[in-house]
């Protein structure tokens, strides 16, 4: 009878030991779900909002709380539209959420987050504006960073503006020196 009691205790201990591994996996899954849920905010009219970043050549760059399922064109509009000199053929979306999801190995274990890279999508907004093809414009996700670069022509124009000012100053200095020698 004494050995049966020890056997029951042994079985209970083994059962608890084996079930603790699945509890840890469930806890890890739960923390991943909470992390994803923390990227969403409830708005005034019970509308789910997400945070996105807008950088580059828009009127008002910054971080925005936008309704979930907002597309890229709407976000650019929220940011005041593109500035003169924006390169709308090379708009980039850096999708941070996919990098975080890919950093987990599917078994509840964290992967190497330092080596995981966020995918970068290049969107041709100019083509959308010329054709109206809505399939070219993606829906944004929580944590996206949108970069609207400066066009090469605008960079060149700014460079010429600086060099023309420097050239004007050099010409003025030359004229002053010439008149002083006369």
Task: Explain briefly what this protein structure is.
The chain is an alpha+beta fold and 182 residues long.
Please explain how this structure is put together.
By secondary structure, the chain is of the alpha+beta class. The protein contains five helices and six strands; from the N terminus they run H-E-E-E-H-E-H-E-H-E-H. The protein has helices spanning about 1-35, 70-80, 95-100, 125-130, 150-180; strands at about 40, 50-55, 60-65, 90-95, 120-125, 145-150. The protein folds into three domains: about 1-40; about 40-150, Roll (Outer membrane lipoprotein wza fold like), CATH 3.10.560.10; about 150-180. Strands 1, 2, 3, 4, 5 and 6 form a six-stranded mixed β-sheet that branches. The protein is elongated, with a radius of gyration of 29 Å.
Write the layout of secondary structure elements.
Layout (H helix, E strand, L loop, with lengths): L1 H36 L2 E3 L5 E9 L5 E6 L4 H7 L12 E4 L1 H7 L17 E4 L1 H7 L13 E4 L3 H30 L1
Parallel strand pairs: 2-6
Antiparallel strand pairs: 1-2, 2-3, 4-5, 4-6
């Amino acid at each position: 009878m004494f050995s049966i009691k020890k056997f029951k205790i042994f079985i209970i201990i083994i059962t608890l030991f084996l079930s603790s591994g699945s509890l840890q996996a469930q806890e890890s899954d739960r923390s991943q779900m909470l992390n994803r849920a923390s990227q969403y905010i409830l708005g005034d009219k019970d509308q789910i909002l997400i945070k996105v970043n807008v950088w580059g050549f828009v009127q008002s760059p910054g971080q925005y709380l936008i309704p979930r399922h907002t597309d890229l064109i709407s976000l650019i509009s929220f940011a005041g539209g593109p500035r003169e000199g924006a390169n709308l053929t090379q708009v980039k979306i850096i999708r941070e959420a996919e990098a975080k999801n890919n950093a987990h190995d599917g078994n509840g274990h964290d992967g190497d987050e330092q080596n995981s890279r966020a995918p970068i999508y290049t969107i041709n907004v100019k083509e959308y504006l010329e054709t109206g093809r809505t399939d070219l414009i993606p829906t944004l996700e929580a944590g996206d960073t949108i970069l609207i670069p400066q066009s090469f022509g605008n960079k060149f124009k700014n460079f010429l503006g600086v060099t023309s000012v420097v050239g004007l100053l050099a010409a003025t200095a030359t004229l002053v020196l010439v008149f002083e020698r006369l």
